[in-house]
Write a structure and sequence with these properties.
It is a single chain. With about 350 residues, this protein is α+β, with helices and mostly antiparallel strands. It has three domains: about 1-40, no CATH class; about 70-305, Ribonuclease H-like superfamily/Ribonuclease H (Nucleotidyltransferase, domain 5), CATH 3.30.420; about 305-340, no CATH class. About 30% of the residues lie in helices and about 20% in strands. It is built from eight helices and 15 strands. The strands form five sheets. Strands 5, 6, 7, 8, 9, 10 and 13 form a seven-stranded mixed β-sheet that branches. A two-stranded antiparallel sheet has the order 1-2. It has a two-stranded antiparallel ribbon with strand order 3-4. Helix 3 (about 170-205) packs parallel to helix 6 (about 260-275).
């Protein structure tokens, strides 16, 4: 970090603060406009190139550079001494900025409250526990459920029934993959828009640091699972598989063997890629089952969600929509092969 009297000269000859690239920076307590060779007359009115809201949109748009999609060893999250803490205000579990043995007031340092410098996206890390459940796995009576835990009382937590399909029953592996997909969907569809609003409002309080606030948007997501299958699929196995877009299947690069659950694996990969397009990097962490109890509880609860039977034609889900089970039974009656 530079000092207030440590300017940097740009290619156009202007001086800016070293840390934020601004001519007038209240955070660094400096003003380098006095040295500008291009002085504007006080009688001249400088036209605004865009409105305040347009300016915000422009800055936030620049703050979402695509980040790299990690695979192999790079996609495996390795703890380095930091603990995690749940923030009631943003309903998320964040990696603590400091090691566990350093006392801190977490409410004042929660990364979503923009306390970290814009360049430290690696320290803005969310932990999300995921799990799938499948009572009767391997039988025609199997029922799939998924659980996603963002924290003890998070508004983003999920407990869902996957489907009941007598022709192609769900499996535990499919349940685990679908849990990962749903977790990433929630981050992309619900949390990212909320974060953009938070940053936009923050700009109102510090308009001279729009770029600084906007650089606070990127962050990392660590999906925590006790499934060795899911962990290996999304890290090391993707390196030895080839995706066939025509047939919508993964195959082993050497043997050519078709990979089971290709549809669900691809769904998870696509969600990772979508988030990377907004500057959000996804990593994976394998933990013992006892460290994933809440996600496991939510997944098991999902399998017990009641479905309402509607005569002999099928079922309705708890929201009143047609469930996958109803679709499967309907297709069976027509002699068609139900979807997985």
């Amino acid at each position: 970090m530079g000092f207030p009297d440590t300017p940097v000269e740009l290619a156009n000859g202007k001086l800016v603060c070293q840390d934020h690239g601004l001519q007038i920076c209240h955070q660094c307590c400096c003003d380098y406009t006095f040295d500008s060779s291009e002085q504007v007359s006080s009688d001249e009115e400088v036209p605004s190139s865009s409105s305040g809201e347009d300016r915000k949109s422009e800055v936030l748009s620049r703050a979402e550079p695509s980040t790299q999609v990690l695979t192999g060893a790079a996609a495996k999250f390795i703890p380095s001494g930091q603990s995690s803490q749940y923030c009631e205000e943003c309903s998320l579990t964040w990696m603590s900025v400091f090691p566990a043995d350093v006392p801190m007031v977490f409410d004042e340092l929660c990364p979503t409250h923009d306390s970290l410098p814009g360049t430290r996206a690696d320290q803005r890390t969310i932990f999300v526990n995921i799990d799938g459940a499948c009572p009767g796995n391997g039988t025609t009576h199997a029922v799939g459920g998924l659980g996603v835990s963002f924290g003890p009382s998070s508004i983003y937590n999920i407990s869902e029934l996957i489907h009941r399909n007598p022709r192609k029953p769900p499996t535990s592996q499919q349940a685990e993959l679908k849990a990962a997909i749903r977790a990433l969907e929630v981050i992309r569809e619900k949390y990212l828009p909320t974060r953009r609003v938070t940053l936009s409002l923050a700009m109102n309080t510090c308009p001279c640091h729009e770029e600084c606030w906007a650089r606070g948007l990127p962050f990392r997501v660590v999906l925590v699972t006790d499934s060795a299958y899911l962990f290996d699929c999304m890290t090391s196995h993707l390196l030895i598989w080839r995706w066939d877009p025509k047939n919508q299947l993964y195959s082993n690069k050497k043997s050519g063997k078709i990979i089971m659950n290709s549809k669900h694996i691809r769904g998870a990969v696509e969600e990772v890629e979508k988030l990377a397009g907004s500057g959000v990097q996804v990593l994976w962490r394998k933990v013992p089952r006892e460290l994933n109890e809440e996600a496991d509880r939510l997944a098991k609860a999902g399998t017990k969600i009641e479905v309402k039977k509607t005569g002999d034609s099928g079922y309705l889900d708890e929201q009143g929509g047609i469930s996958d089970g109803a679709l499967a039974l309907g297709m069976l009656s027509l002699g068609l092969d139900p979807p997985i």
